[in-house]
TrEMBL record:
The organism's taxonomic lineage, starting at the top: Bacteria, Bacillati, Bacillota, Clostridia, Eubacteriales
Name the record gives this protein: (Fe-S)-binding protein
Segments forming domain 4Fe-4S ferredoxin-type: 187-215, 218-243
Cross-referenced InterPro entries: 4Fe4S_Fe-S-bd, 4Fe4S_Fe_S_CS, EFR1-like, Flavoprotein-like_sf
Alphabetic keyword roster: Iron, Iron-sulfur, Metal-binding
Amino acid sequence: MKGVLYYFSGTGNTKWAADIFKKYFNNNKVDLHLLNIEKIEEVKIKEFDFLIIGSSVYADIEPKIVDDFLKKFPKSTKKLKTIVYVTQGGKSSSAASIIAEKLKVKGYNVLIEESIKMPNNYYFLLNKEPNVNEYEKILTDAEDRVKKTVQNFIENNKLKRQNSFIRIKLGKLCGNSFRRVIPRISKNITVTSECTKCGLCLTNCPKSNITFEDGKPVFHSKCMLCLRCIYICPVNVVRYKGKKIEQIQKERVKGVIKCQ
Ligand SMILES: Cc1cc2nc3c(=O)[nH]c(=O)nc-3n(C[C@H](O)[C@H](O)[C@H](O)COP(=O)(O)O)c2cc1C
């Protein structure tokens, strides 16, 4: 058996979970290919026996980059078995159900919808301090959740954490309204004069939204607020509302960095 996992991960949490999926499938002698949707030109599903879609959560729904990717996703004629998982800072979200809806319309047999709690990379949205003491437990629980998901899938158990119709409706309302204000919110991201011009933010921005002008990174209007630039900066000089952010994703973001 051979599966494919397509993921989007702004700051490494969803990729971290993808690696754990791979580990547990491999432990069960099942091959799993991990593919970053930012780098995909052509989606290939024919050669695979099952599909996994992994995404982060922005305001209760999937980021638009995932939405756009799913729109181009081919139909499944053989009702390909599918797992949808999302990672978010809270306990639950509508995103897995919303992604599953989109895949079911295309003929996929979504057996599992999973919402995995991970460290909240946007902890500073409400001026909150990150609770780093919690992280070890969050990661252990997340790994356990992935392990159980793999087991359930292999045993052919249908496991859905169904969100109610109302929850999904509200999620879409909240997520779509949030998408409209992202260009405004993203103006909160700036860089200080201590920037070393290493270019990591520029080469790793999923929207190619950063350029160097007069020797300084300039953030344009296509930002999707994934926050990767904040967490990959080696000298931590990318600011949000002028504030220094504790780089809680520093280790995990390495999983999605092109060059270091
Ligand atoms: C713009 C934005 C919006 C977010 N909205 C939510 C949310 O509505 N609910 C939640 O639980 N977490 C939310 N988060 C936290 C992320 O979903 C979470 O940290 C996720 O694991 C990040 O995955 P990644 O590192 O793969 O990008 C948000 C993060 C960002 C950047």
